[in-house]
Amino acid sequence: MNDMITSHSPGLSAPEDDNEGRRTARRRLGREKLFYRLLTVPALGIISLVAIVPMLLLLVGSLREQRSGAFTLDNYLNTLGNGFFMRTLATTIAMAGGVTIVSIFMALPLAYLLARRTMLRNIIMPIITVPRMLPFVVIGYAMILLLAPMTGVANRVLMSLGILDQPAFILFDWPGQAIAFGYNGVVVATAVLTGVLMSVDPQLEDAAVSMGANRLRAFFAVTVPLAIPGIIAASALIFTSVVTAYAIPVMLNGRVPYMISLLISANLLTLQQQNLAYAQAIIVSVLAIGVTATGQIVLSRYGQRGGNQ
Questions:
Q1: Each residue of 127-145: pLDDT tens digit?
Q2: Residue 3: is its pLDDT beyond 70?
Q3: Structurally, how many domains does the chain consist of?
Q4: Which domain holds residue 116?
Q5: How many Å apart are CA 275 and CA 41, to the nearest integer?
Q6: Is residue 97 included in any domain, yes or no?
């Protein structure tokens, strides 16, 4: 009998060993998760101080009346009922949408070429990367040197060639702002789309060509659908950067403000209507955050659909 009990005792301890092993694995996994969560604390702290806390202060200020300090929705009601504000917001959205579409269409062929030509990419990508580091102020000054009516390089060249009889006065108007935004948009879109297109296998295009499609059709039927995540990400970046831009509108604005940031700045600094400006800033921030969040949702659903397929 003792021999039988002794022979069965290893078998009886096996489930206990398995349970102990699972508990040890869970504890190790928990420690790893805690470690990685602790690593995010500095970044979350910086984000809170730089973004979340100021946005909360803006929100509280936007809900207060200018003189009495009482909580009210009048700032939002007055803003949304102001025709001039809504028209300026509409022109800002139109500017951002137009610049985004044009930038994507112009950057896509260049990004495709850079993704397929390694030597060309090594030469051009550093040139493209440098403008991404430049602040909007530098881009604004560059546009002034290029498009100024009397002293701009472009006007001088076109007039010397006889193409223009008189200088083109487009700089301090919406076309000048659109060119400046488009310059930055093309740079951003090219950098984003190049990385995305590099991950697309060229053999997929070759397979489409072998089945009878020409290169152009293979590009639009195979490559472009696979680059949609990059197109969505680049579009969100460009759109939000234009909607929230301040330096270029200040430098290149004419008599009529086409961008909403100038109107908010005028209410805040010139007219001293701080609480109204806070409400307008919240509206623009919600617009920018909404576009970014929508892009993320579309990307996640697109990724899930691609994984299911």
A1: 777 766 777 778 778 888 8
A2: no
A3: 2
A4: 74-308
A5: 32
A6: yes
